[in-house]
Amino acid sequence: MNTFRHLPLSLTLAAAFALPAHAQSLVDLYESARSFDANYQSARAQFEANLYKAEQAKAGLLPSAGLALGVNRVNIDSNNATAESTYGNHGATLSASQPLYRPANQATAEQGKRQVLLAQAQLTAAEQDLIVRVSQAYFDVLAASDSLTFVQAQKSAVSEQLASAKRNFEVGTATITDTREAQARYDLTLAQEIAVQNDLRVKKIVLDQLTGKSESTPKPLAVPVVIAEINPNDVNSWVALTEEASPGIQQARLGLEVAELETQKAQAGNKPTLDLNASYAMTQNNGIASNAAADYRTNVTSIGLSFNLPLFAGYAIQNRVKETQSLQDKARNDLEGARRSVALATRSAFFGVQSGLGQVKALEAAETSSQVALDATKLGYQVGVRVNVDVLNAQTTLFDTKAKLAKARYDVLLGGLKLRQASGTLKVDDLNAVNALLLK
Question: In the chain, N or C: fewer CB atoms in 10 Å?
């Protein structure tokens, strides 16, 4: 009877001694995925592209300069010999312009600043998504591995019960029914073992593809497993964090600010512009043949202001303003929608973790009760007041409870990370708290 009572600890210790030397922690596999995962690398490349795009928006406020060169050759052929000539000229013009008042360009530059913040929010969301995906794959492998361990332990227990039923039948203390029931349960357990082995194989492939590792081996949870309560243990406190921390809300808020600046750009279509222009031009003419007087050189320097005032553009500007104002309203509604969605996701995640913690406690109690029930049933079988099927059912209940308990613990740990992701507060440092629960 003590064999079943100490099964969780013995299985964990056996796993510890059998654990490969290259077993990885959750942080180790996250770091591998960070440099390998295609989705995250794509998000990082998009982030860098957005930074360069934002820098382009400043160009409208900065001076521009250009250099133009030209070379010409002219040949005049006429019946009048005195009018015949051949000459060439070459010239260079250096020009520069500095915008002094361009409200549309100013709004574009401000949009560029918002684009930088938007790119950062998008990258943060991608990082949080990667943390959750790696954690999901990590715990999926552990859960499948635990299921395989429990199924194999159940197979061993059923095998012992089958052997006992055969011995009792041979000596005449049991019927053939006990043997057949035990054989049927053993065959069912074999089928379950095959299915669980395949599930574990698939889960490992998912983790390997995510991290770029070959034969990734996650470290299991250490015994005893102590999962901390939610902190803060108030759903409204988590929802309050989302306003500033959630990347989704940040993106929607920045989208509204960009839309407002777009309206300012449209309104700037009715405003004047003022530029400072300067140029220096040099032209050299080289007279040849009959017209030597064509030799001369000119240098022209100019500096001035360029003022432009739009008067009428066929109502294009007015309609553009109305369009951007409608898009601004859309962005405002999108922001409100994002706030509601994030609040709902945060509340759902919070109550999911809270419910999971309750399930863990209930399953821990159920595990103890199932173990006591199995011990009592085995004793009753030995004294003849219980039949073989009762023992088999008690064994199945115990191992099923153990598998559910292990899965519930993983779900709570993953749920805690998803709660932080929903509220926007998830960081790589949060994985250290999970790492502390793993086998060293």
Answer: C
Residue 379, C-beta contacts closer than 8 angstroms, at least 6 positions apart:
1
d(CA 89, CA 50): 47
**H helix or E strand, kind and range, residue 100:** strand 85-101
Domain membership of residue 93 (yes or no) is no
428: domain CATH number is 1.20.1600.10
Assess if residue 168 is contained within a domain: yes
Query: Within 10 Å of residue 26's Cβ, how many Cβ atoms?
Result: 23
Question: The domain containing residue 357 runs over which residues?
Answer: 2-35+103-271+315-435
Total count of residues recorded for the chain: 440
In DSSP terms, 304 is beta-bridged to 277
Q: What is the pLDDT of residues 75-121, one digit of tens each?
A: 777 666 555 567 778 899 999 999 999 999 999 999 999 999 999 99
CA dist 83 → 86, 174, 262, 413 (Å): 10, 135, 61, 97
Are the C-beta atoms of residues 200 and 162 closer than 8 Å to each other?
A: no
Instruction: Say if 232 falls within a structural domain.
Output: yes
Query: Nearest CA to 293 among 131, 437, 85?
Result: 85
Q: What is the tens place of the pLDDT at every residue in 3-33?
A: 444 444 344 434 443 555 578 999 999 999 9
Residue 66 has pLDDT above 60, yes or no: yes
Specify whether the CB–CB gap between 204 and 216 falls below 8 A. Answer: yes
Domain presence at residue 296: no
Bridge partners of 335, per DSSP, are none
